[in-house]
Design a protein that fits this description.
The chain is of the alpha+beta class. Helix content is 36%, strand content 33%. The strands form two sheets. A five-stranded mixed beta sheet has the order 1-5-2-8-9. A four-stranded antiparallel beta sheet has the order 4-3-6-7, with no helix packed on it. Helix 1 packs antiparallel against helix 2. The N terminus is likely disordered.
Length: 217
């Protein structure tokens, strides 16, 4: 993606479209995937509860007479270290959860960027893959400003089987003069055994470019 800065703007939209030779095989894989997902979620929840307890412990003043302040300071430092460790573990579990939910051989991710120096304002984007709505996002002022400064949004991540797929994109916004615009684009892309990164560059009518451009990132 070159020198672009990646930004996180939205929650992931999950889709269980893993390939399989039979419906029964797909159901079994989806059930196993769901169980792994629930297990990881349970571990993350437990760690976050532990973090909350440690936070309360580290911020509750002791009223006992003759408390050794040095010992309390040492305890507070230990609590802070444990907090840091728990946060690192939670982040690692989040990455593991994504790998379990979206294996590399079926993973597809859609990224969005804005055309440089485009005076138009993009308000919302809708994406369908193979006729199924996978993302509908409305941008805030701060998010739009980040995209204008070269940021890249991961709009969607999910699973697709290998082969050819169709992607439909609709962009709504306002032109530089204040007029509303709504443009669509239709493309096809090929999904191989490696993770697929689909890049969408959005542009308004004042940019002199196509409203939607598809690229492989």
């Amino acid at each position: 993606m070159g020198g672009r800065e990646r930004i996180s703007l939205n929650s992931l939209v999950e889709q269980g479209a893993a390939p399989g030779r039979s419906q029964g095989g797909r159901d079994a894989r989806l059930d196993a995937q769901t169980r792994r997902h629930m297990s990881v979620r349970a571990v993350v929840l437990g760690l976050m509860l532990l973090l909350a307890l440690l936070f309360l412990l580290g911020n509750t003043p002791s009223r006992a007479e003759g408390t050794d302040r040095q010992q309390m300071k040492g305890l507070a430092e230990q609590v802070q270290e444990i907090k840091s460790d728990v946060l690192e573990i939670a982040a690692e579990l989040g990455r593991l959860e994504e790998k379990l939910l979206y294996p590399s051989n079926t993973q597809v991710a859609v990224f969005v960027a804005l055309a440089p120096q485009d005076p138009s304002r993009v308000d919302a984007v809708r994406v369908q893959i193979d006729g199924q709505l996978v993302a509908h996002y409305i941008y805030s002022f701060k998010e739009l400003d980040a995209l204008r400064r070269g940021g890249v949004q991961r709009l969607y991540v999910g699973n697709l089987p290998t082969g050819e797929h169709k992607i439909d994109v609709q962009v709504d916004g306002k032109a530089h003069g204040g007029a509303d615009f709504s443009h669509t684009g239709q493309f096809t892309f090929s999904k191989g055994v490696e993770p697929k990164l689909v890049g969408l560059t959005l542009a308004g009518p004042d940019s002199g470019r196509a409203p939607v451009e598809l690229g492989n990132w």
